[in-house]
Amino acid sequence: MTAWKQADPAGWxxxxxxxxxxxxxxxxxxxxxxxxxxxxxxDPATCGSAAAGNGTVVVRHWDGRAxxxxxxxxxxxxxxxxxxxxxxxxxxxxxxxxxxxxxxDTVAYTDALHWTGNGWAVPVRLDAAIQTAVAPSPTQLWxxxxxxxxxxxxxxAHFNGRTWTHGSFPFNGTAxxxxxxxxxxxxxxxxxxxxxGFEHWNGRRWRATxxxxxxxxxxxxxxxxxxxxxxxxxxxxxxxxxTSADASGNRPGTIILRWNGKAWFRIAFPYAGGASAPVASxxxxxIWLATASGTGDNATEWFDHxxxxxxxxxxxxxxxxxxxxxxxxxxxSGGARSMWAAGQVDFASDGEAILTYGxxxxxxxxxxxxxxxxxxxxxxRGRVAAxxxxxxxxxxxxxxTIRASESRRAVRAGGSKRAVRAGGSGCRRPTRPxxxxxxxxxxxxx
Length: 446
Hints:
CATH class: Mainly Beta
Shape: globular
Number of helices: 2
Low-confidence stretches: 1-9, 363-390, 396-429, 432-446
Largest sheet: 5 strands, antiparallel
Mean pLDDT: 79
Helix content: under 10%
Oligomer: single chain
Radius of gyration: 20 Å
CATH topology: Methylamine Dehydrogenase, Chain H
Structural class: mainly beta
CATH architecture: 7 Propeller
């Protein structure tokens, strides 16, 4: 862990760097409660090997003073499988979900790891390459992605606190947001097979919400990506869409949409560059997002802010002469104007920079507590989650809690500055399964 004390524009700064870690998900509930997860190489001797997995899932919880390590179940430490975290969802420090994609070369399945505050529940196996997840309440989880089998374009799974249900979905979900268990949003598609789409769950059923004219040819929208969704207030939802260079000669760009309770409409975005991170509420009716203009080594990373009908932007601060490639962005609740972001860097053993806005993670607070490559790491309140080797159960089977011991880690539109790091740790992150032609949506029984 490296601390950075440079002053930077508009309150954004790099607070620390996680060496050798690739973050795969980030969530914040308050200035004293946040989660991040990713992966790192467990055995430096095999890092970068084309044949070895040896990856370890990394989980951290922010308690207002430091990012505390929470040890994952034992089978996710130094695993022979290729694995990488793809999403994090939580409601508090005692209720967090880590979605870990696993397989050899391709994603064969995704395991849902549930932290209950007392330990890890038995992992649940989802037969899909999950892309996004959201926890609308302490007893619920929604997860979306691509099924592991050929056929439907999308996959959805839901946990209601007791049982799992799952089924096909009209598109591959890539972004989610929720205000409550009866107010959930998912966006996705644009994977070369299905059109972009947004659906809303009202507590009883999913309903498609038509999109306005996005000003992009339909054939090119097939390769656009819904980067994020943000529920800013009742009937007020925002989305950012990243478009790729297209056949018409257009450069990568960003489309901003806003839901007013009845329909989506487009908000003009004045800057060049594609969205690289999910849109996030600023806590006062506005939004933040991260974009990248230019390509390769000439790319510039930006934080863009919309408030009071006006856009402003600042450069993402640099560390060791390099701007992080920001892929994750989240805000705290309660109008605190506090933000977290995470971005990949080439230095620090291809690590991850943690960025803050609004005074979070100031130097002088306790540093990251970490035990890289170890099967034991200091957890919350000085405890260590028990080493467990319980196999994942299939969704729908019963779960039981494993108690903690009382004794102690996408290529951005417009191109990347470097090749995508396999898992970020030198271990290969499995790629998504091969695509099959989509078929009509069969609604799961929710």
